[in-house]
Amino acid sequence: MVLFLLAQGGAIAIAGASMLAYFTKLETRVSIMEERGAAYTVSRLDELKLKINSLEGQIKNNQATIDRLVAAFLKDRDARP
Fold first, then answer.
1. Residues 6 or more apart in contact with residue 68 via CB below 8 angstroms
2. How far apart are CA 32 and CA 25, in angstroms?
3. Strand, helix or coil at 58?
4. Tens-digit pLDDT profile for residues 16-57
5. What's the rounded Cα separation, in Å, for the pair 32 and 39?
6. C-alpha distances in angstroms, 42 versus 15, 32, 49, 77?
7. CA 40, 44, 47, 53 torsion: positive or negative?
8. How many angstroms separate the CA atoms of 60 and 54, rounded?
């Protein structure tokens, strides 16, 4: 019985050490990814902001064109007898 309890305690200790090693390795990986990924993420977000600004400008130009076309169409329609 004592031998069984010692073996069980050893298994629990080994499992604990294994979990500790796994979580330490995982934390190291996450830390490395955060350090390496931070610059990439910031540059990617800056690129996305530039694209969004460009698309917003295009939307404004397209809206102005549409407004002019609608105004011309309505004026032409109202001028007809």
1. none
2. 11
3. helix
4. 999 999 999 999 988 887 777 777 777 888 999 999 999 999
5. 12
6. 40, 16, 10, 52
7. negative
8. 10
